[in-house]
């Protein structure tokens, strides 16, 4: 694993932690919202991984 790969993984982990810890003053989100948020986080991480793979080429 290259230094770039390690740095990307660290950035992805930090981004996921940041997204998971975002709160607002509103009531707790619904299950549907939580599932949508999880899906969006997963898509974001997949895009980062794809971007990393493309930059290797």
Walk me through the structure.
By secondary structure, the protein is an all-alpha fold. It has one domain (3-20, 28-56). It has helices at 3-20, 31-56. The protein is elongated and about 45 Å long.
What labels describe this entry?
mainly alpha, 57 residues, single chain
Number of strands: 0
Overall pLDDT metric: 82
Shape: elongated
Helix and strand pattern: HH
Q: Name the helicity range.
A: over 70%
* Oligomeric form: single chain
**How much of the polypeptide forms β-strand, as a percent range?**
under 5%
Q: SS-based structural class?
A: mainly alpha
Number of domains: 1
User: How does the major sheet shape up?
Assistant: none
Query: Count the helices. How many?
Result: 2
Poorly predicted runs are none
Give the CA-CA distance, first to last residue: 15 Å
Overall radius of gyration = 14 Å
């Amino acid at each position: 694993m290259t230094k770039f790969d390690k740095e990307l993984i660290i950035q992805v982990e930090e981004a996921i932690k940041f997204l998971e810890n975002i709160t607002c003053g509103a009531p707790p989100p619904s299950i549907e919202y939580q599932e949508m948020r999880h899906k969006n986080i997963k898509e974001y991480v997949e895009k980062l991984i794809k971007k990393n793979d493309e930059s290797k080429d």
